[in-house]
Amino acid sequence: MSDRLTRRGMLAFGAAAGLGATALAGSAYAQTTTPAPKFLPLPLEAKPRPVPAEGYILDRIGDAMYAVTAGGNQTPFVVTRTGVVLIDAPPSLATVLPSAIRRVTDKPVTHVIYSHSHADHIAGAAAFGDVFRIAHEETARTIRVARDPNRPMPTVTFRDRYRLNVGGQHFELSYPGVNHEAGNIIIHVPQQRAAVMMDVVIPGWAPFLNWGTADSVPGILTAHDGLAKLPIETFVGGHIHRLGTPRDIKDSRDFSYDLWHTTQRAVAETRIGDYFAQVEPGHQWGAFKLHYQAIADRVEPEMIQRWGDKLAGVDIWTRDNATTIAVSLLLDAPRNVQ
Ligand SMILES: [Zn+2]
């Protein structure tokens, strides 16, 4: 890490911690040329929960829904009168998921709903045999191309909406458009006052690097809008330590829009021409690199100041996510994001 980068990182951290430049310059940390990574502490709401001896946490949602959480991954299931409906089958939970289900019911898994195609969520599906599988048509298309035997093809697909009724429980599947991935759906379970959407809202946390290589950044905002309208008490986001609430959806939505608007302002306040003047004539990539660095320099300290003590990891990916939004503003150029 260069001295320039080191100092910039410290200033951002210092701004969040309420430290002035004088305090930083006088600290031992400021004089170290190769400091160990020093991240903002995790807010209380983002800290890990104790894991029982079984090696996973089993949360109950409503009167028939459960979620299994272990190792930063999380997946729910619903016990109906006739069988168990699984939502995803993460390979990382392959050993604990069957025993977690057996703890609450003897009924077999009869259905698997695929939230999207990503292997970390559904590449444990083959282990549940020839069950009824439901997915968005884009998810089916991606699975077909991937030719992964651990992700068997869905039995049925849908485009906009699908209502699944199993043993007295209802599942309202809907597609808000391309978001984290093309085909990533919202699963509303009204009788349990719960909703599931993977990899968009991570309760208590700022987004992962580029929202996990999001297929559409404006679509991430649209997906948040869809989730915010649901009449629910519990939200399952698929990762890290705990379940969410409508408050977590609101925080993630507010953060995402704030990051979008702050980046939009930083783009408006900087001029790419200024950076072309600093590089070899015609060096397109060099000028864009400097431009995006300047945008991230403006966005990161603001976001850390407003969100650093509310959401975990704001200091980790905000620079990268600001760059992703700057590119999206240039290429997607959405006019529907307010
Ligand atoms: Zn994913």
TrEMBL record:
Q: Where does this protein have coiled-coil stretches? A: none
Keyword field = Signal
Q: Which Gene3D superfamilies match?
A: Ribonuclease Z/Hydroxyacylglutathione hydrolase-like (3.60.15.10)
- Superkingdom: Bacteria
InterPro entries with a match to the protein in the record:
Metallo-B-lactamas, NDM-1-like, RibonucZ/Hydroxyglut_hydro, TAT_signal
Q: Name one Pfam family in it.
A: Lactamase_B
| Stretch forming the signal peptide | 1-30
| PROSITE patterns linked to this entry | TAT
Query: What is the protein's given name?
Result: Glyoxylase, beta-lactamase superfamily II
Q: Where is the Metallo-beta-lactamase domain?
A: 73-239
